[in-house]
Every structure is written in structure tokens, then in C-alpha cells.
Design brief:
The protein has about 200 residues and is mainly beta. It has helices spanning about 1-25, 135-140; strands at about 40-50, 60-70, 75-90, 95-110, 120-130, 150-160, 165-180, 190-200. Strands 1-2-3-4-5-6-7-8 form an eight-stranded antiparallel beta barrel.
């Protein structure tokens, strides 16, 4: 099951990378000195998580998140901070509940181009995961680090610029790994897909 999740996330990353390459090829050297805007993104998040140890059924979580990105260096990179939370209320036949929150930060890469209204990006984030609910507090009492476990995500996305202040995040896909104790491998592989709205704080030239 974990192999399947990794394969799906890898495929989505390949699609995003291909879009980035295609759009970046349309760029012109005249845009090299123009800074990208700082941004605040608000997103809906869907997470497909691997099953609890000893079972074979994966489950879905839904929720939302927000991220802030500040351009650094040449403007092709940005420092990113992200907060997200998702919830599932009927996991396994016993209807366990789980709320998973992540607090991560890292680096984003944005290819530069001017002829398209699309902006692809790729990013790597790391931080802390917090879990609560009957799945970790009841059945899996071995989850002693449920309050603060390591979390990391690798992925990318594609934004459509509507105007100088707003873009639509058409899609963001990430492989999200967490290390919450579960009495088995103490590792969870998750596929996260998001979409939302991006607010820019500087004019996009």
C-alpha cells in the first residue's frame, strides 16, 4: 500500500515538473530581474493516508491549510511556512476519528517565465505533525509522540494568475510523510492534493 501511494505521488510530481518545464521554456531573459510577489495561500486539502497497522483499508481525510511564501535571493526561490489540518471521522469498521495537523517550513523553487499566466513551483518542507482523536488516543495508545512527531513533504503545484493581486492554485500535490508511533513501523505515507486561492502582496509585473 505504501508503494502504491509513493507511486501515485511520484506520478503527480512528474506531471507538475513537465508543466514547469513547458511553461519555463516560454520565458524570456528580460524577466530575470523582476521580483516575484510575497503571497498568502488558502487551500482545501485532501489527504489519502495509509491504513493503521494490521488492516488493509486506506482512508481519506479532508480539511484546509494556509501558507506564506516570501521570495529570497534572485526571486526564483522563496521561504515557505505552512499550517494545515485534516480530519476523518469514520476510519475502519470501528469508526475511529483522527485529526492530523502539520506545521512545516522550507524552500520553494519557482521557474521564471512571462508569456504564460501559469506559475508552476516545487517545494520541500519539514516540521512537526500533531495527531488527535480516538485512532491514536484509543486503539493506538502506543502513539506516545502523537503531540509532536516529525513531518516532511515534497511536492509542487501550478497557479493560474487572475490579476496582479490574486491567483488560483489549480493543483498542489505532495508526498507527506509523518512518523507517529503506531506499534509497528512508526511511519505513515500520505498523498495530499490541494487547491485554493493565492493573495499577492506585491504587484506581479
Amino acid at each position: 500500500m505504501r508503494t502504491s501511494l509513493i507511486g501515485k505521488s511520484a506520478l503527480l510530481l512528474v506531471v507538475v515538473a513537465a508543466a514547469a518545464a513547458a511553461c519555463g521554456a516560454q520565458g524570456t531573459s528580460g524577466s530575470a530581474g523582476k521580483p516575484l510577489p510575497a503571497e498568502l495561500a488558502v487551500e482545501y486539502n485532501y489527504v489519502r493516508s495509509n491504513a493503521p497497522p494490521g488492516t488493509c483499508t486506506c482512508f481519506n481525510l479532508n480539511g484546509g491549510g494556509a501558507s506564506f511564501a516570501w521570495p529570497v535571493a534572485s526571486g526564483r526561490f522563496a521561504a515557505v511556512g505552512e499550517i494545515a489540518a485534516v480530519h476523518a471521522g469514520s476510519i475502519s469498521p470501528n469508526s475511529y476519528g483522527l485529526t492530523l495537523s502539520t506545521y512545516t517550513a522550507g524552500v520553494r523553487y519557482l521557474p521564471r517565465f512571462t508569456r504564460w499566466s501559469m506559475q508552476p513551483f516545487g517545494q520541500v518542507l519539514a516540521g512537526v505533525a500533531h495527531s488527535s482523536g480516538s485512532l491514536v488516543q484509543g486503539q493506538y495508545s502506543l502513539a506516545t509522540n502523537a503531540g509532536a512527531a516529525f513531518a516532511a513533504s515534497v511536492g509542487g503545484g501550478l497557479d493560474l494568475r487572475a490579476n496582479r493581486r490574486i491567483s488560483l492554485r489549480l493543483v498542489e500535490a505532495d508526498y507527506l510523510a509523518t512518523t507517529i508511533d503506531n506499534g509497528s513501523n512508526n511511519h505513515q505515507n500520505n498523498l495530499r492534493v490541494s487547491a485554493g486561492v493565492v493573495f499577492h502582496f506585491l504587484s506581479v509585473k
